[in-house]
Amino acid sequence: MATPTTLTEVKWQKRADGDYCLSGRLERDTVSAFWRQRAAWLPTESQVTLDLSAVERVDSAGMVMLLHLCQAVAHSGGHLTLHHVPEQLNTLLRLSHVDSLFAANIT
């Protein structure tokens, strides 16, 4: 198994080609540093699956980071699918009225 990339409290782990796991706390205090170092972890596959079951907490900054991640993968011609989306994130998406932006990315 690959070694996870850890930046602050966010961990990005590649499990197999196109299969990743994100864990930790996706919040204002952690996502900024993690996103700035995206060259170290941003997937390059055309079909990417991201398991969010190990995400402990997510706030609006984490939600925006995931939106940017979906857009970055799409910009490079790929598609990102989010699995095991935490209920906290689903609630934020609905309350922010951006759930339609993620509709094609959540299973």
TrEMBL record:
InterPro entries: MlaB-like_STAS (IPR058548), MlaB_ABC_Transporter (IPR052746), STAS_dom (IPR002645), STAS_dom_sf (IPR036513). It comes from the Bacteria. Residues 22-107 form the STAS domain. Transmembrane segments: none annotated. PANTHER family: BLR2341 PROTEIN, INTERMEMBRANE PHOSPHOLIPID TRANSPORT SYSTEM BINDING PROTEIN MLAB. This is Anti-sigma B factor antagonist. It comes from Photobacterium jeanii.
